[in-house]
Amino acid sequence: MKFLIVTLLIFFLAVWAGVKIAADPGYALFAYQHWTLQMPLWVAGALLVLGFILLHNLVLLIRGTGALAKKFRIWRKQHRLNVSHRLTKNGLRELAEGKWASAEALLVKATQHNNSPLINYLAAARAAQEQGADNRRDEYLRMAHVSTPDSELAIGLTQAQLQFNQKQLEHCLATLRHMQHLDPQNKYVLKMLKKLYQELNDWNGILELLPELRKRKVISADALAELEKQAYYELMLQLGKSAGPQQLDNLWQRTPRNLKRDSQLLQLYTARLMTLQRNDEAEQIIKDALKTDWHPELVRLYGLLPASQSAKQLETAEGWLKQYGNSAILLLTLGRLCLRNHLWGQARQFFESALDLEPNAELYAEFGRLLEHVGQAQDAMEKYRQGLLSTTVTVAF
């Protein structure tokens, strides 16, 4: 309906204009210097309208061409991004499949039109390392830092992991310490440091790290307690038999009170004291420990402990027999103490009782030594033979 009304209106306007033009066409005169141009007024008007229309369409055409060029640029950029994403995806797949060379090539090529090439460079660094190309690995890590300088922590952690895998442990330590300086609360940095210190057998480093591991709750309380125990145990082992008294005392003073009651640590510390011929101290530690808890290895060490009052030693061990009952290790210790006190018959009884409970090479050897001492060489040889046939036990402290 509206279209019909507009059409009729235009028709009537055209008729009205035609009548007016026919009655008085008028004219338009244009003059420039010595040039003049005269035409009917309606022709001038028609040319003006036509010129406006042409100019308008020309403007639209120019704008459309600019918009088309802009759309083309956007399309080309998006196309390059799509290509980059496809190359990255394929490169990561090749990396996961262990195809290091092709993965590296795809990942690096994808960085050409990638606004965020960090992942590409980090993955390419791993691919390069797997090919033994440490120089290319370090170059990719450098380029990752240049392209994304605000991702220093992510780049550093990747570098540390790659260095650790390559057994470049000292370099890895330097990298991780720098990362810890950047972000002291980062749990992953602390966890990697723990793993690295264990790999380096740097148990003092572990002890220095323990407060942060505990504060940040990096590992469970049970794992933390086990790690602390292992650290002191390994430090005690590292002292070795040649350690001086001051070194041993310093380490024992540092040891937490709860760990001083640990069976393994007590055994190792007591053995170190015996090596230094501090036998009275070793004996007192064993007796104090066995007042409340049963420690088989400490009982065994007690039988090997030289003491000035062997009769009192035997009396103490007999008290343990009443307190804790029969056990092969205690009977072996009692037999050894009887040998030291020249109680050959009692020693034999203890060794025989121990063999009934748990035969082993160490026990057969002691029994053979007793028999050899009392002149029963043939029986002694038989015990030695039986000991060789049994499970070998290494006696070392």
Report the average pLDDT across residues.
Answer: 86
Distance between the first and last residues' Cα: 112 Å
> How many E-type strands?
2
Global outline? rod-shaped
How many helix segments? 19
Order of secondary-structure elements: HEEHHHHHHHHHHHHHHHHHH
Describe the 3D structure.
The chain has a two-stranded antiparallel sheet. It has 19 helices and two strands. Helix 6 (152-165) runs antiparallel to helix 7, helix 15 (310-324) runs antiparallel to helix 16 and helix 18 (361-373) packs antiparallel against helix 19. The chain has helices spanning 2-23, 41-96, 100-109, 118-130, 134-147, 152-165, 169-182, 187-200, 203-215, 221-239, 245-254, 263-275, 279-289, 296-304, 310-324, 328-340, 344-357, 361-373, 377-389; strands at residues 27-32, 35-40. Strand 1 (27-32) and strand 2 (35-40) form a beta hairpin. The N and C termini lie far apart (112 Å).
What layout of secondary structure does this protein have?
Elements lengths: L1 H22 L3 E6 L2 E6 H56 L3 H10 L8 H13 L3 H14 L4 H14 L3 H14 L4 H14 L2 H13 L5 H19 L5 H10 L8 H13 L3 H11 L6 H9 L5 H15 L3 H13 L3 H14 L3 H13 L3 H13 L8
Antiparallel strand pairs: 1-2
List keywords for this structure.
single chain; mainly alpha; two-stranded antiparallel ribbon; 19 helices; 2 strands; disordered C terminus
In short:
The protein is mainly alpha-helical and 397 residues long. The chain has helices spanning 2-23, 41-96, 100-109, 118-130, 134-147, 152-165, 169-182, 187-200, 203-215, 221-239, 245-254, 263-275, 279-289, 296-304, 310-324, 328-340, 344-357, 361-373, 377-389, and strands spanning 27-32, 35-40.
